[in-house]
Amino acid sequence: MAQKPKPTTKTLTLEERVEVIKLSDKGLSSRALATQFGVGRTQIQNCVKRKAEVLSDFENNAPCNRKRKLRKTGNEAVNDKCWDWCLDAIARQVPISGPMIQEKALQIARVVGNEEFKASNGWLESFLKRNNLTFGKQCGESGGVDTNTVDNWIDRLPEICEGYAERDIFNVDETGYFYKATTDKTFFRKGQKCAGGKKSKERLTVMLCSNMTGDERERPMVIHRSAKPRCFKNIKTQNLPVIYNSNRKSWMTAALFEDWVRKFDRKMKAQGRRVLLFLDNATVHPKLTGLTNVKLQFFPPNTTSVLQPLDQGIIQALKLKVRRKQLQFIMDEMDKDKTSSGPDLIKNVTVLDAIYWLAAAWRELENSTFSKCFRKAGFPWAVTPTDADAINDAAEGNVADDSGVGLNALSQEVFGCDFSDVADIDADLTVCESRQAEFYLTVTEPVPTSSPPPQAECDSSESETEDVPESRLPTFQESRDAIALLRRVALHAGSTAMLNFVMGCSDELSSINAKNMRQKKLGDYFSVSAPKSQE
């Protein structure tokens, strides 16, 4: 008599295990869950017992079709460091191949002292499968984006954001900005670094963070090469409308980012809020521990061009506004100097000018721009469906018609492109250190694990090389005269908004002067009343 074939044992996928945990938390018994999913009670109980591990895998974008727990092979250190290297390559749009991964793994194995490791084809196959990696052709910024990964992520978003209000969901990202861009210093593409020479003096890295509703925008962080540019004379950096940092390459570092995140965490704790912060897998975005009120949620690798809200039109809208202010500055300078051309006049732009433009443009963006771009990135509850048609308007930056001021013609002269394209001048500028150089490490060189501390390797030579006039602090009377002049302009133009603003400035100036006078009198009092020392 023929024996009956043994029934096949079903193994739950990661996605199914997450669903089991959710239903278990709602009170369903192990027996009921086993029946519903067609598995034994033991598998259900083990799943619930390993709840923290399962949810951690799910939140860290492990393949949702993974069925079994990964076995310990003794190569975990090599696998982890090799995966970090792959993430960095993907984030930088650097093409990598199987042999490259194998060579990198062998190199890491020698560094960590794993002499028995063999980067065989079998290991490579397991590594790719374990990390859900597939090879494909890159094409531009969105090259290699896996539509299945994107669709799966969007399906998971409601679960990831469960328990967080719209105002408590944030996104943070960096972008590059050439504040002295001219026709021959523009259009950098992914993989083209600007690390030294004159260009590095004219570039900034800007970090932006906002919540979904757009009503909470953190102060932008601006990173430049000089710790104290000449244009900062008599100005305290903590009084700037941005968070100012510096290092030799004007790049974001892991240390700078960690410092910002921990301060943001303390701020949320003081407000009694728990927030969700979405970010990409860049090398300078470490997985931090010890955060109490901020949960870091990383996007799947190589998907931020599609899934990151700030990349769906917010950064472009910001840059359009900044470039408009820059061009307006040039036009004003042209009125004062009738002989110089646009590229010559733009040399007068300082880091301080760029900071003011960035801060003002960030403040001027409409709240609806943020909610629409969050929706475009897959957050379906960000705006109502009737607003969906306006998403493309957000990507265009709501820039008004420029025919009255001739911005297109001036943009062609200064930037070599139409004003509508000017936001893309530095769209793909490198904003942080890449670890691709590690591929050429020798066996005696350790793999770097951290970035230099904030303000490391600052370059203070700008004040000696950049021809920028030093700023003199105006007197109180000069400030009053300037306000009086602005008041006359507002009255002549019939602008109530400008008049109210100028009057507010007048009141604030009087308060500042009164405070300074009190401090001066107090200082005089102590200097006069201090007892004379006995000889």
TrEMBL record:
DNA-binding among keywords: yes
Biased composition (Acidic residues): 459-468
SUPFAM superfamilies: Homeodomain-like
Location(s) in or outside the cell: Nucleus
Ranges in coiled-coil conformation: none
Highest taxon of source: Eukaryota
GO molecular function: DNA binding
GO-annotated cellular components: nucleus
Gene3D superfamilies, per database record: Homeodomain-like
Keywords: DNA-binding, Nucleus
The keyword DNA-binding appears for this protein: yes
Region Disordered, annotated ranges: 445-474
Domain HTH CENPB-type, first and last residues per copy: 66-137
Protein name, UniProt field: HTH CENPB-type domain-containing protein
Organism: Batillaria attramentaria
